[in-house]
Amino acid sequence: MSALLSVDNLHVEFATYGGIVQAVRGISFSVDAGQTLAIVGESGCGKSVSMQAVMGLIPMPPGRIRTGSAQLRGQDFLGKTHLDGKAICGDEIGMIFQDPMSSLNPTMCIGDQIAETLEVHRGYSRTQAFARAIELLELVKIPEASKRARQYPFEFSGGMLQRAMIAMAIACKPSVLIADEPTTALDVTIQAQILDLLKEIQQETGMAIILITHDLAVVARMADKVAVMYAGQIVESASVDDLFYKSAHPYTLGLKLAMPSNKSDAAHQLQPIAGSPPDLFSPPAGCAYCARCPWAMQVCQGDNPPPFVIGDGHYAKCWLQHPQQERDIDGLYQAVTVTGAPA
Amino acid sequence: MWWYTLKRLFQGVITVWFIATATFIGMHNVPGDPLSGDRATNATIRANLEARYGLDRPVTEQYFIYMRNMLRGDFGISYTQQNREVNDIIREHFPVSATLGILAVLFAAMGGILFGALTALFRNRLPDYIIMFLVILGISVPSFVFAALSQLSLVNMNNVLGFSILPVAGWGTVSHMLLPALVLGLGTMAYMTRLMRSSMLEVMSSDYIRTARAKGLSPTRIFSRHQLRNAVLPVITVLGPAIAAITTGGFVVELVFAIPGLGRYFVQAVQQLDYTVIMGTTVFYGAFLVFMVILVDLVYGWIDPRVRLQ
Hints:
The structure holds 2 protein chains of 2 kinds.
Chain A: E1 5-16, E2 19-31, E3 36-40, H1 47-55, E4 63-72, E5 75-76, E6 82-83, E7 86-87, E8 93-96, H2 100-103, H3 110-122, H4 126-139, H5 145-148, H6 158-169, E9 176-180, H7 188-205, E10 208-213, H8 216-222, E11 225-230, E12 233-239, H9 240-245, H10 250-257, H11 298-302, E13 308-311, E14 314-316
Helix pairs in contact in A: 3-4, 3-6, 4-6, 6-7
Chain B: H1 2-29, H2 43-53, H3 59-71, H4 86-121, H5 126-140, H6 143-161, H7 174-204, H8 207-214, H9 219-231, H10 233-248, H11 250-256, H12 262-272, H13 275-303, H14 305-308
Helix pairs in contact in B: 1-13, 4-5, 4-7, 4-10, 4-13, 5-7, 6-7, 7-9, 7-10, 8-9, 10-13, 11-12, 12-13
């Protein structure tokens, strides 16, 4: 059985005055219905760009998808706007963004903005669509929905706007919801509410969620599967438990150590990852993390590691996972039996 | 919204009163008076005339008399034109200026929004370069040059074609209005094009347009429903001052095209110190502009809910 949504070997680059930026360098992932895939990584690692490229939202030019494919239920859709008569954007795949304050049209009332999707994709009449928009607002737990639907974005709070965004994204019952840092602009209590809401809707509709975030706490709360991105590549991919308990890539480990905890002894001090990500105008030939990795070896500089399969659905692109590599690194999970690059 | 409208109208009345008072004071401080020309041949006649027009009374009293008359809608009679009431002058010539001005503003706004949107959509491509070059021309060349040039080229075109496409000058039919209105609105149109272009570019790269695209809307729907309304806001803000600039700047164009507008009387009156005509035309123009600016603000509120509801 093929996955609901799968992306294979996606390369995205941007032509700028300074040269070509290779923002995404060959990422592959898949997500099944009802599943949540989290894509984690620091700013500029290509997590948003890759999803926007899949949706066809990056401006071209300067953007360009060099190679790669994306499939929905086994059918290629990259570069297409419709699949089997259904629109990709807004109908099959819904999307919510980071800053709800600026992501909604300031001169259009909330209800109309939600209704618009239904009018375009479902052929609803204006009144029908507006009535449905009110129901959707109730679904995302906005009180006095019929009054709120006639209000404008500036009359909503940030959390309410993100709810409205969610209502808009799920209006056509999409099979996949892409949430691009949905809680980054919100305060912590609202964050929790929004995440709970997403989870609830997922349980009701069975949609897949692709959650882009840099917050490992959000990942632990939401995700089934995690892909860790660094410098335009997925360096480790695993189920959420494996990722936290069997971190097999030094970058994942670094992210974990840089996470605040509520224990106060010296062992739990925050350890930032020193240095900065590589220049993607001319990405390094070897492992991109090499310059910041405490265990970098000779081989890391010249050769990009293949994905080593560590367990079921768990791989890491790191030479330390090579079967002939010694297994003595503190904190890093190195499986006893590692298979080389998967097919 | 009603409260806002009332508030703005009240402010408008205060503004007009201020304009009237300032004009009155300024006018009476100019050396000379309307009777010092060849009309007052000797002291007796002059005294009679002063008594007749009330000029022998203190200025403050004149002010109050004038204000009282103005509130009744009576701007008095002209000093220099025989047996003509200022109200008649305004009634006869203002509609001409107003028609020309409003037509020019419409040209400017529609052209500016259209060309601005076009340049933004074709950013850094040939149509953008051509229009932006013309915009610089439109902003920097004064209207009387355009007026003369347009007349000249129209004459040549009429000669070549052997019939008249548009009349070169005069007033009366719609075809008389088109060319002067276009010339009068050209500078503002150029300015609005620039404004529209930049605000359009800003809107195009905004987050909510990305949202609209993620919703799967067609480019035409995004343009008409999401981009245009937001991009047009800065243009509407300058519409008020633009109306002022166009209607008061119409004098030169009216002269070149031999249009019987109010502008000529306005300028003549100042030269001859025709007190009542100066006051009448200034106050009337002032009131008209204040009203137009209020109207623009109300339109702005209608388009932008943030203004309407706060």
